[in-house]
Amino acid sequence: TGTAAEARPLPAGEQGTPAVTPAPIPVRGRLWRIAGQALLRFPWTGLGLDNFRLTYGRFLPADAWDRTIHTNNWFVETVVSLGLIGGLPFLVWLAWVPLDAARVLRRRSERVLGVGVAGSLLAFLIHGALDYFLMFNSTALLFWLLIGLWLSLRRTPAPSEAHAHRS
After folding, report:
1. 60-100 pLDDT, tens per residue?
2. Is the pLDDT of residue 54 over 90?
3. Closest CA to 69 of 104, 110, 27, 101
4. What angle do the packed helices 74-107 and 28-41 form, to 10 degrees?
5. Mean pLDDT, rounded, of the chain
6. Which whole-number Å values give the CA distances from 83 to 12, 29, 41, 66, 142, in the listed order?
């Protein structure tokens, strides 16, 4: 969704290939500081979903920047995208997931599937501290499927609880 001023003609013979403009990519710390500046500017509603990559160059300042670069942090990207109104409730819920996993896995006698799902969700959370990867449909789908599987597992009674309900 660029403006006409941002459009660049493609080199001759490459009309089907997008032109790539080399631009320096800021390091993570700089991207996070820019996200903080953007959040200070739009604290309640944020920049909107997937808009950080389209707008961060204005904070550099730069005439051209790589519009495929995100904040490289799932949690920062969420807050700068959704603001405090959307980002904080999501992050609180996200923090609840590993706490819930620890609680549920301690009380269940059958843990194999639960440990696998909880470990997979933990891997998402750890990876999210250094990357933003939910813009890929397959990765986002996997995360939400794991969340759904976790929620279904936590509703399934442990074998000892199932016997108690039948008696």
Report:
1. 888 889 999 999 999 999 999 999 999 999 999 999 999 99
2. yes
3. 27
4. 100
5. 84
6. 43, 19, 10, 23, 25
